[in-house]
From TrEMBL:
It comes from Psychrobacter saeujeotis. This is M28 family peptidase. Residues 112-236 form the Peptidase M28 domain. InterPro entries: M28_fam, Peptidase_M28. It holds the Pfam family Peptidase_M28. Gene3D superfamilies: Zn peptidases. Transmembrane segments: none annotated. The keyword Coiled coil does not apply. The keyword Nucleus does not apply.
Length: 367
């Protein structure tokens, strides 16, 4: 929903941008030779919530290679297309052989949805922002999986980020990617990375990933496996996106954490080192560029402190919702987490990531 702020200013060429939303201003002439500047202000989380709920309600069972996955990809393309703004929005098909699950050893056809927001300065630099839109097949009734948390939520925020940057000048290029078949072994992101040229890799700013943003007790931003050198020293260049995200969240008074690297009883080391995440599409990128992975879970819960236990909420059986059609759905999550959780989380992640992207690609703005 759009709201408007109206104010008077001398007649001049004005580029208006509400930095929180990065939406271009609109002007209208008045009788007194002034201009009314109408600056759209968007309520964070609304566009993404609409996307996420539609994916869950209308595209349940969007598992790898299915007709519903293809339909969900076409829906994501629709949600990330905003008129003649210069963005290129395409479906990129890919093929792989499934290695596990009910389709093991079968050839699977899937697709990524790629939005290219071209930079204005010809820097050659590119920031990649992604989320997978498919659902899992681990449970027998996978055809009924709404996947609201995993990962309609991340896909929803992704669509909102494209919306926020629509028509905004950025020095550097942004590629927003909705990945297919993540649940089949990160297949969409692997195919995308394999398609990158050496020049694109060399000029990459980094990759931002969004996965499972609702169920977990806490919000996290973790870096990748390339965070430390062989001697265990943190590599500043490879954790820059995570550190920027933490600073922005702190400025916004939004609680954002990192994996605390708790060592399970009887083990010699944590599942992942301090501030390092796991198990989503950022892993396809983190050997070639800095990454940051946004998620909601609870890395302080056991037994293995691996981030897989999302919550101690008694209304979430077993402490996690992902992949389970009986839990990862709108009805159960709303009942367990409350009516406001979806909007609140979508808003918080959208705020943080919008500002992170704006910083990284040098978005033109007037505060």
């Amino acid at each position: 929903m759009l709201q408007t702020i109206v104010k008077q200013a001398p007649k001049q060429t004005i580029k208006v941008l509400a930095i929180a939303m990065m939406v271009a201003g609109v002007t209208a002439c008045n009788d007194d030779d002034s201009e009314t500047i109408i600056t759209p202000v968007i309520t964070y989380g609304e566009y993404g919530t609409d996307t996420a709920l539609t994916l869950a309600r209308d595209y349940s069972g969007r598992y790898m290679g299915s007709s519903t996955e293809l339909a969900a990809a076409q829906y994501m393309k629709q949600r990330m297309t905003f008129g003649d703004n210069g963005n290129e929005v395409i479906l990129e098909p890919f093929t792989f052989v499934a290695s596990r699950g009910p389709f093991a050893d079968q050839t699977i056809n899937s697709q990524n949805v790629v939005v290219t927001h071209k930079g204005t300065e010809n820097t050659g630099r590119i920031l990649y922002v992604g989320a997978h839109y498919d659902s899992a097949t681990q449970y027998p009734n996978y055809i009924d999986l709404e996947g609201l948390d995993d990962n309609a939520s991340g896909s929803g925020v992704l669509s909102e980020l494209v919306y926020h940057f629509n028509g905004v000048n950025t020095a550097d290029t942004i590629k927003f990617v909705a990945f297919g078949s993540e649940e089949g072994g990160l297949q969409g992101s692997k195919a995308f990375v394999e398609s990158l040229s050496q020049d694109e890799i060399d000029n990459a700013i980094g990759m931002i990933n969004l996965d499972s943003l609702l169920t977990g007790d806490n919000m996290y931003a973790n870096a990748g496996d390339n965070s430390y050198d062989d001697d265990g020293n943190e590599i500043a260049a490879n954790v820059k996106l995570r550190e920027a995200a933490l600073r922005i969240a702190n400025e916004l008074n939004l609680g954002l954490q990192v994996n605390p690297a708790i060592i399970p009883p009887g083990a010699d080391e944590p599942y992942k080192p301090l501030g390092v995440g796991c198990c989503s599409d950022q892993e396809s990128f983190d050997s070639i560029m800095p990454v940051v992975a946004f998620e909601a879970t609870n890395w302080s819960l056991g037994p293995d402190f691996d981030g897989y236990t999302q919550t101690d909420n008694p209304d979430i059986p077993g402490g996690y919702s992902w992949h389970n059609p009986d839990v990862d759905n709108e009805a159960v999550l709303t009942q367990a987490l409350g009516e406001e959780r979806i909007k609140q989380r979508m808003s918080s992640f959208a705020r943080i990531v919008t500002e992170l992207i704006a910083e990284q690609v040098q978005a033109e703005s007037i505060r």
